Amino acid sequence: MQKTITLIAILLFTTCLFAQQDKFIDDSIERLENSRKYLLLVADMMPEEKYGYKATEESLSFAENLMHIGFALDWHSQSLIGDREARVYQTDTIFKPANKTKAEMMARIDQTFTEAIALLQDVEPAELDIELDYFGSNRSKRQIYLLLADHITHHRAQMLVYMRLNGLTPPRYVLYQ
Question: One GO molecular function term (predicted)?
Answer without folding.
Answer: metal ion binding
